[in-house]
Every structure is written in C-alpha cells, then in structure tokens.
Amino acid sequence: MSQLPAAAANAPSIGDPAPPPELVHRVSGQSLPAPFYVSDEWFTRDIDEIFSAHWIFAAAEAEIPEPGDFVTVTFATRSIIVIRDDANEVRAHHNVCRHRGARLLTEPAGSTGTIVCRYHSWTYGTDGNLTYADAQAPDFDKTCFSLRPVRVRTIAGLVFICLADQPPADLDDLADIVEPYLRPHDLANAKVARQTDLVENGNWKLVMENNRECYHCGGHPELLNVFFPTWGYSDTDAIPPRLGPVMSRYRQATEELVSVWDRLGLPHKRIAQLDTRPTGFHIEREAMDLAGESFTLDGTLACTRLLTDLGEARLGRVSMHMQPNMWLHITSDHGLLFSVIPLAPDKTLVRTTWLVHRDAVEGVDYDLDRLTSVWDVTNRQDADLVELAHSGIASPAYVPGPYGPSEFQVEAFVNWYVRALRGEHTWPQAAEDPDGSHR
Ligand code: FES
Ligand SMILES: [Fe+2]
C-alpha cells in the first residue's frame, strides 16, 4: 500500500465535514476552506456582515456629474440609489418606496428630476423627500415618509456608501491619508470614457484575491508590457531568477520617477494597512515599464489631454487597494476604477470605469479602443482564472493551499475578511497595534 507524502498526510482529508458557518476558522497563510467560497450560508454572511456593514465603493462622481444623475447599486436583496441632488450634493437612498415597498429605480444608471414609484406614483425629490402622494387622508404628513437614507462619503471623486447604522469610524482617517495621492489627478472633474460590466463565474473573494497578487501575471501578456510583474516582491524576498532583468528595470524606473514625484510634490510612499483596521487599504505610486506613461502596449499615452496640468506624462501609476471591494490605477492620462459586487456564491460583477479629463475628446485626444484594450483583455483573462479557481474549489478534492511570499496581499485580504466576520476590527486602533503598518 502506497504512503502519502508527509505534507499530504498533514492536510485536511477529502470529505472532512465543513465547519459550521458560526465558526470563522482558518489556518493563517492558507487559502480559505471551500464553504467560504461556495456555500449559501457564507454568502449570506458576506452580504450581511461585510457588504452591509462596511464602506463599499459605489461609483465615481464622474458617473453622476449633473443634478438628477443616478446609479443604482444592487446586491442580494439590497438596492441603493446614489444620486446627485438638486443642490449638487451626492446622496444615497435605499431604493425602496415608503408606501408599500416597491423598488423605485430599476435601471443601473440614468437621470431623473424626481424619483417616481411605478406602483402608486408616490414621488420623491432627488434629496429623498416625499413630494407627492395622491389620495391620502387629510392628516397624512409627507415629511414622515422620506426615502430611508444611506450613509455616503466622497473621497477625491470616489463615492463610498455604508448600509450600517454605525459605519466603521475610520473613513475620515483613511481620507486624510489617501486624498494627497488622489487629488492631484482631479478625478472629481473627470468624465467617464467607458464603463464595462463583467460577470465572473466565481465567488467575490476569489475576484479580490486574484487582484491582490501578480504571481499569476504570466497570464497577462498584454498587461506585462507595462506592468512590472515584480509587484508583490519586496527587496528582501527571494526574487525568482526569471524576474531578475525586470527587477533591474523596475528599480531603475522607480529611481527616475522618485525624483519626478518629489519635484512635483506628489506623495509616493507605500502605505499598507490592509488587515489592521476596519477599512483596510493600501496606496502607493509605482513606476511602469517601457514609456511608463499609460496602460498601452508601448506605455505611451492613451489620452493626450492629461488629467492634470502637472505637465508630466510619465508619472507611473497611483495604485490603491481597499477592502472589501475596490482597487484603482491612475496614470497621468486616465483613471481606472474597479468595483466588485457579489451576485451569488459563484457570480460576481466586476465593473471597470475608465476616466479621462472632462475636456478630452474621443477621436481627437484619445482612441477608445487604445485606451481600453489592455484592461479589457486583462479583465477577461482574470475572469477565466477566477472561474478556474472557483471550479476547483467547488470539488470535494479541494483542500486549502499555502500562500507564497508574493501573495502577502492575498493573505492580508483574507485576514481582514476573517477578522471582520469575528468583529475584531476596532477604531481607534488598540495601543498594541499603533499604526497598523506591516510588511
Ligand atoms: S409602493 Fe410605491 S407608491 Fe405604492
Ligand atoms: Fe490578473
């Protein structure tokens, strides 16, 4: 009879019973057990305890530039209207009529002067106040039936919402840290050049995990023209020999750009607080390969009208990751925003938004296909990898496997997630965890 290798003998056995959902148990440094990714119970907990309890990225302000412009954010049984009101403020309301509960706006985006319920025509202003309700009793008080508000916060042109009555209290602190990185690119005054919705056949956590490492970047030949696959390897880590030449180029490009960033007063230091606070995040400036200007095949600009008046095309990229559902890249000529919305245990919406200067003209300043082609194909490649991962994890043969050093952000995401489910994130942070910095 053959013997199992020692490592296999230590692994969980195929057919081990799944942990009950009330036990948030995982082995540090390993991928999660299968039920976290495939079961309805864990999906419900993710909706209730992650997406309904934390700040989530909803939209760019550029998606709703004029009063009355709105987007709806819908996941599981929740739907939220994010709308610019008549006073030009960004607001968020539950998309539920105060009469008998009908869903109000059913389109993903649009523009409207008032929010009218299709059922019995109750009508609300963009600020959520009820303005019309036909045939009510004489003592009916409209002021008691405004749309239920959702907390909303904009940060440098990005709109975040939180469904919780008591949202995580660290968003102001996060804004103080990230705004100096984002503000110079003026995303609040940009325009949407294109937006795509891709439904990936995998759990939302697999989408996030896939985003948090470049171990798989060999699957992205187009992106790798300009994206250094050294991402995730710190100077002290063992760098695979195959990445030696590219690491040299990365270091040289970084050295050159640091002097540019410093001259322009652009912050670039890496700040990583991914799993040590309620709203975990990471932000930094990174050099890019070849011309180093944009996400094109040769790295040269995709849009000749730059986002800002800094007068410098080669700025590399601002990279920001935020738990639980967003990441972004900003080059000198465009912003690229990604949001992740869970639809089912095995279905996830990935929305990609390309922002350019509001005065940039398609066909003159940018060609839409050149602007979007690298990330279009990269998104499809990632969707394929996420489906591959979900398919394998759904098999009874799956057992959690180990993360390597370059997958530290995957570990940080999973650790943040598990700590969130356990209610371990506090703010202000405990004294023994003073700044949340790690790695
Ligand atoms: S449910 Fe909306 S008006 Fe009746
Ligand atoms: Fe990828």
From TrEMBL:
Keywords: 2Fe-2S, Iron, Iron-sulfur, Metal-binding, Oxidoreductase. Residues 56-161 form the Rieske domain. GO terms for molecular function: 2 iron, 2 sulfur cluster binding; iron ion binding; monooxygenase activity; oxidoreductase activity, acting on paired donors, with incorporation or reduction of molecular oxygen. Its cofactor is Fe cation. Residues 1-25 are annotated as: Disordered. PANTHER family: CHOLINE MONOOXYGENASE, CHLOROPLASTIC. This is (Fe-S)-binding protein. It comes from Gordonia jinhuaensis.
